[in-house]
């Protein structure tokens, strides 16, 4: 059965919760932490990644949506904050609450779920880079997983094959968002080639890495 998107109120709550988690993760980081490479986004370090996490709500607030989700759009966010420290980026994320929380409920479905999918994907990219796993059963993971399985690009047979696997939604979400290698997916009995083919040509790319 094709997945149904989570209700809008849950989608909004999922973002508020994950933003607070990211703010917490950033609280004790120093400049060296900011320079750590992000395995899931090897062209970025932690500071670049956080610039994107901060930059998406900024662009929504400023209506800078031309080229949304493209590499030039995300690179502009990184470039905009290239001189900011982790502490400064954390402060920007905190200060966004006053404006963005009023806009968030007005983001229409399914765009709101896609926004949460991107944000929670990067939350866990950040956790991986910092060696701080957690929140794998969060509401944001549920929202992201539902959005990823709502696409017409997936056949009903493919969706059923994913849903019956006895692994966590978190693991399925990481695979479908292009965060697990072919080897990692095979180890979880996921249909790795089908997932790789489905992601071909999209902004979600299968990483070339091995290991857990």
Low-confidence stretches: none
Helicity, in percent?
A: 55-70%
Class of secondary structure makeup: mainly alpha
The major beta sheet can be summarized as: 2 strands, antiparallel
- Give average pLDDT, whole number: 92
Task: Summarize the helix and strand pattern as letters.
Answer: HHEEHHHHHHHHHH
Shape field: globular
Sequence of strands across the biggest β-sheet: 1-2
Report the total helices.
12
| Strand content bin | under 5%
Distance between the termini: 30 Å
The tally of beta strands, per DSSP, is 2
What is the radius of gyration computed over CA atoms, rounded to a whole number of angstroms?
17 Å
Descriptive notes:
The chain is mainly alpha-helical. The protein has a domain at 8-152. It is 59% helix and 3% strand. The protein is built from 12 helices and 2 strands. The chain has a two-stranded antiparallel sheet with strand order 1-2. β1 (37-38) and β2 form a beta hairpin. α1 (8-26) crosses α8 (139-148) and α3 (46-61) runs antiparallel to α7 (111-130). The longest helix has 20 residues, at 111-130. The chain is globular and about 45 Å long. The two termini are 30 Å apart. The model has no long low-confidence stretch (mean pLDDT 92).
Write the topology of this structure.
Elements: H1 8-26, H2 31-34, E1 37-38, E2 41-45, H3 46-61, H4 71-80, H5 86-95, H6 97-103, H7 111-130, H8 139-148, H9 156-163, H10 169-176, H11 182-187, H12 192-199
Antiparallel strand pairs: 1-2
Task: Give structural attributes.
two-stranded antiparallel sheet, 212 residues, single chain, mainly alpha
């Amino acid at each position: 059965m094709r997945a149904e998107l989570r209700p809008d109120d849950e989608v909004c709550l999922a973002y508020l919760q994950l933003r607070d988690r990211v703010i917490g993760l950033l609280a004790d980081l120093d400049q060296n932490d900011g320079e750590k490479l992000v395995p899931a986004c090897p062209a970025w370090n932690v500071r670049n990644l956080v610039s994107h996490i901060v930059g998406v709500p900024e662009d929504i607030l400023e209506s800078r949506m031309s080229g949304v989700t493209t590499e030039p759009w995300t690179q502009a966010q990184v470039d905009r904050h290239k001189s900011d420290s982790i502490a400064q980026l954390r402060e920007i994320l905190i200060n966004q609450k006053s404006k963005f929380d009023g806009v968030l409920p007005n983001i229409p479905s399914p765009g709101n779920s896609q926004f949460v999918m991107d944000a929670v994907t990067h939350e866990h990219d950040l956790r991986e880079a910092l060696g701080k796993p957690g929140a794998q059963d969060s509401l944001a993971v549920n929202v992201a997983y539902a959005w990823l399985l709502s696409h017409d690009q997936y056949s009903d047979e493919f969706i059923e094959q994913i849903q019956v696997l006895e692994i966590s939604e978190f693991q399925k979400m990481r695979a479908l968002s292009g965060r697990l290698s072919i080897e990692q997916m095979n180890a979880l009995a996921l249909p790795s080639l089908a997932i790789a083919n489905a992601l071909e040509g999209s902004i979600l790319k299968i990483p070339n890495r091995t290991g857990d």
